[in-house]
Design a protein that fits this description.
mainly alpha; 2 domains; 66% helix; 0% strand
Length: 126
C-alpha cells in the first residue's frame, strides 16, 4: 500500500481514487544529443518537452503512433489569435463599406463565400 493511501484504507473515498491515478514524476535518461532533438521537436509542435515525451510514450503504448499529438494552445497563442481576429474583423468591416460604396457588392459576396468555404474546409481537417 502506498504511504499516502494508508490513512484512507478501506474508505473507498473519491479523493483516494483520484490520488492513485494522479500523474507522478518519473525519471528517464536521455543523452544530451537526444534531449536537444526532443526539445527541438517540442518547440516545432509548440508543446512542453514533458508533454511531447508523455504523448509519444502513450501513443506507442496505445498503438496510436501514427497519429499527431493533440494540439494545445498556450495563453499567449490564444491571445494572439484573438487579437488577429479582432484586427481582421475591423479591417474587413472598413473594406466592406468601401466596396459597397463603390458598388462592388458582387465582388464582396464572392470574397465572403470564398472565406466561408476555406473556413469550412479547415474546420473539417481537425
Amino acid at each position: 500500500m502506498a504511504q499516502n493511501d494508508r490513512g484512507n484504507s478501506g474508505t473507498g473515498s473519491k479523493s483516494a481514487a483520484k490520488r492513485s491515478d494522479a500523474r507522478q514524476p518519473r525519471s528517464i535518461r536521455f543523452s544530451d544529443s537526444e534531449w536537444r532533438l526532443i526539445e527541438k521537436a517540442a518547440t516545432r509542435h509548440g508543446v512542453p518537452v514533458g508533454e511531447l515525451v508523455r504523448a509519444g510514450a502513450l501513443a506507442i503504448a496505445e498503438d496510436r503512433l501514427g497519429e499527431p499529438p493533440p494540439a494545445t494552445l498556450s495563453k499567449g497563442h490564444a491571445a494572439l489569435i484573438e487579437a488577429t481576429y479582432r484586427s481582421v474583423y475591423m479591417m474587413a468591416t472598413l473594406k466592406r463599406d468601401e466596396l459597397l460604396d463603390a458598388e462592388r457588392g458582387r465582388e464582396l459576396d464572392d470574397l465572403v463565400a470564398a472565406a466561408r468555404r476555406t473556413m469550412a474546409e479547415t474546420m473539417d481537417d481537425g
